[in-house]
Amino acid sequence: MSVTTTPAKTPPPPAGLKGNAKRKFSLAQLLLIIAGALILVSAVRVITGADQLTSTGQISAALGLAVPIGLAGLAGLWSERAGVVNIGLEGMMILGTFGAGWVGWQSSPWLGLLAGIGFGVLGGLVHAVATVTFGVDHIVSGVAVNLLALGATQYMAKLFFNEGDAAAKGGNPKQSPPADTLPDFTIPGLSSGLESIQKHHWFLISDLAGILGGLVTDVSWVTVIAVLLFVGTWWVLWKSAFGLRLRSCGENPIAAESLGVNVYTYKYAAVAISGGLAGLGGAFLALVTSHIYLEGQTGGRGYIGLAAMIFGNWRPGGLAMGAGLFGFSDALQLRNGGTTVHALLLLLVVLLVALAAWKAYKKAVLQAVISAVLAAAILVWYLVTDDVPGDFVGATPYVVTLLVLSLSAQRLRMPKADGMRYRKGQGK
């Protein structure tokens, strides 16, 4: 007697592991979107006279401010792709600022950079032990890491910076002595030429020159490292077997375990890498932005990095755009005050009108009406004022964060098992 067997069909991979071709923009579409955004910003600059909007200095400052936010977001991406929510990014950045400042002033700033990464990894491992090994709620553990990091660094700062050689060189309970400067570079000829074109204030041409000039003027080598980390993250997570296994832990850890993946190991690795990246973001603040560790230096950038990661839909490319947007808004309020932020109100009106038209086309009447009403209110604000109050200017990055998340919420898809407690063998 013969037995006929029907070969079992291979189950399709989880949705998060498949290429989402329907939602991807083609290169031509992306270029059109970028060109449209540049034309819109250029038009706003010409109408309002806010020439600093796309100046070389503005873009250079925005790039420097975007890097720690981007690294924090990249840290969150690694952790959450493995299924571990990382609210503790702020605390890991704080540990990175302290480690970089402590080691940096005593030796080389490059060693300080490595120390910042190492301190961040320690914070990541604490979070991994709590969430992966002991099954603590991920949000609770992340908040605990933030509080622990803040208390520990305050204590260690009093211990190491308030006496002896450190105090003699400018240290105190709230800051470290200054470290040496990390090198940066400017492309000669190209930088000065682009700045010259930008100063003519020509429509679109000067804006493009200002943006390109900011990307080749006084650029820290740590910024180059951060860019390479973004590219490397994309390749490792989406083009390697290691990345496929790690993402499977965030989509369906039970299925991953059934295929021989050691889920605990991959989660630990992801959260440790997450901590190291957040620590690098903190080290950037301590050694590139200010050359010292300073209490409260992170200023909530860990949370903004988390928002940038969500805006980017848990992907490096979108995350980079989100970090750039938040860095740009932060640079506006730091360098130019209320005048340039006031010019952005007009840009916001145009975007809200476009959003209202799109929602009306999609038959989302309530959202269209809300967008139109907001656009009208902001237009009135723009017309009857010449400046923006200082308190609102300081809140610009956080307002932008809320607006971006509210507008992008409908297209987001987090890893399916993100934040879920997992126990080895629970699928048996």
Q: Main traits of this protein?
A:
428 residues, mainly alpha, ABC transporter involved in vitamin B12 uptake, BtuC, two-stranded antiparallel sheet, 69% helix, globular, disordered N terminus
Brief write-up:
With 428 residues, the protein is mostly helical. It has 18 helices and two strands.
State the secondary-structure class: mainly alpha
Biggest sheet details: 2 strands, antiparallel
- Please state roughly what percent of the residues sit in beta strands, choosing from under 5%, 5-15%, 15-25%, 25-35%, 35-45% or over 45%: under 5%
CATH domain class name of the domain at 50-337 = Mainly Alpha
What is the number of E strands? 2
Supply the number of helical segments.
18
Query: How would you write the strand order of the largest sheet?
Result: 1-2
Q: What is the arithmetic mean of pLDDT? A: 87
Element-level helix/strand string = HHHHHHEHHEHHHHHHHHHH
Gyration radius, in Å: 24 Å
Report how far apart the termini are: 34 Å
Using the alpha-carbon principal axes, give the shape.
globular
What's the CATH topology name of the domain at 50-337? ABC transporter involved in vitamin B12 uptake, BtuC
Share of residues in helices: 55-70%
Q: Do you know the CATH architecture of the domain at 50-337?
A: Orthogonal Bundle
Low-confidence stretches: 1-13
